Amino acid sequence: ACFDHVHVLARVRRIEVDETRYKPLDGEGVSIIGLEEFGTGPRSWLRIPGNAAVARQAMGMPWAGIPRAGLIANFAYALKARGRPFALEVAGDPGDAFSRAAFGHPLRPVIRAVAVRLLKAQCRQAMAVSYVTERTLQANYPAAPGAYTTPCSSIDLDEASFATGPKAEAAAGGGGFTIACVANFYQAYKGQDDLLEAVRMCRERRIDVRLALIGGGKLLEPMRARAAALGLGGVVEFPGALPPGE
Question: Which of 24, 34, 112, 231 has the most CB atoms within 10 Å of its CB?
Answer without folding.
Answer: 112
